Amino acid sequence: MVNRKELDPEKSLAAAFGQRLRRLRDERGWTQDELAERLGCSGTHISAVETGRRPPTRRFAANADRVFGTGDRLERQSRALRHTALIEGFPEYVAHEARAVEIRLYEVGVIPGLLQTPEYAATLEADAVRREAITPEQASERVDLVVKRQAALVRSPSPLVLAVLDEGSIRRPMGSTAVMDAQFARLLEFAELPNTVLQVAPFSMGARRPFSLPVTLLTMPDRSLMSYAESAHRGHLERESTFVVPILTAYHQLQAEALSQAASVAMISQLRKGTL
After folding, report:
1. For residues 20 and 74, is the Cβ–Cβ distance under 8 A?
2. Tell me: domain 90-116+149-273, CATH 3.30.870.10, correct?
3. Predicted confidence (pLDDT) per residue in 50-104, tens digit
4. Is-cis flag, bond preceding 157, omega within 30?
5. CA-CA-CA-CA dihedral for 184, 197, 87, 54, to nearest 10
6. What percent of the chain has a predicted confidence (pLDDT) above 90?
7. 3-state secondary structure the chain
8. 230 phi and psi angles, rounded to 5 deg
9. pTM
10. Where exactly are the structural domains of the chain?
11. How confident is the prediction for the chain on average, in pLDDT?
12. For 196-224, b where at least 16 C-beta lie within 10 A, e where not — what string?
C-alpha cells in the first residue's frame, strides 16, 4: 500500500492502541474510510488514531469494540492510555532520546530527569501525589522511567550530554538534606564524565537568558535535529529545521553567558557544604 506508515507499538501507549486498531481493521479487509463509516467519523480521524497522532476517546474505543466485536478490550486499553502518568508526546520523545548522539538540556526550577537521583525524583513525585495531581502508582511509573532513561544512555559510544541548569534548579531544596546531598554528589559526578558538560545559568544573567521555559534539543545519528517542549498537558516534538535551528542558536548563546563548568562545579560544591 502506498505511503503506509510503519507503526511501532513500543513508542507509546497511543501507538500501541493504533497498531491494534490497524491490525483489527486489516484482518477484516476494511479500508480506513470503510471503518470510519462504521464508526461515524472520517478516514482522516482513523489515520490519526492508527499512527498515534490522536489519542482515542473513550467513546471512540467503545464504538470500535462494538464494530469489531472485541468486548471492552479497546475501551480498557484507551482507559490505560488516559490514566498514564506520562503526558502525551513524552513517550515518543524518550524513544528518540535513547538513540540521540547529542542531548542538550536547559531546565528551570528542578534538576532534569536525566540527572536526578531516584530519591530526588521520588521526593518530587511525592509532592505531586500530595497535591492529588497524580496517583501513587503514577508516581512510581515516573520514578521508574527516570531510572530507565538514565540506563538507556549507558551505551557505546556514549552520547554527548550538555546540561545548563537555571540557578533556581540547584538552590531549590527538595526533600531532606540527605536527598539534596546525594543529588549534588550526582551532579558533580556527572560533570566529571568525559561525555558531559554541566553549566549553571546564574540569576545575574537577568534578561540575557534566552529561555524562560525548559528546552531540550536532540541530535540524532544522521545529524538531524529535533527539539522538545512541554505545556501543562502535552509535549511537542519539533523536527522542522526552520524552527529547531533558531533554538539551537539560542542554546549556544545561553552556554556562552552561563558560568563555566569549573565555576558551576564550584557553586554546586559550595551549596553541598550546607547539606553535610
Report:
1. yes
2. yes
3. 988 787 888 899 999 999 999 988 988 886 665 555 666 677 788 889 999 999 9
4. yes
5. -170
6. 61
7. CCCCCCCCCCCCHHHHHHHHHHHHHHHCCCCHHHHHHHHCCCHHHHHHHHCCCCCCCHHHHHHHHHHHCCCCHHHHHHHHHHHCCCCECHHHHHHHHCCCCEEEEEECCCCCHHHCCHHHHHHHHHHHHHCCCCCHHHHHHHHHHHHHHHHHCCCCCCCEEEEEEEHHHHHCCCCCHHHHHHHHHHHHHHHHCCCEEEEEECHHHHHHCCCCCCEEEEECCCCCEEEEEECCCEEEEECCHHHHHHHHHHHHHHHHHCCCHHHHHHHHHHHHHCCC
8. -125, 145
9. 0.70
10. 13-83, 90-116+149-273
11. 89
12. bbbbbbbeebeeebbbeebbbbbbeeeee
Confidence of residue 1 (pLDDT cuts 50, 70, 90): very low
**35: its cell numbers:** 471503518
- CATH topology for the 13-83 domain: 434 Repressor (Amino-terminal Domain) (1.10.260)
Residue 218 has which C-alpha cell?
536532540
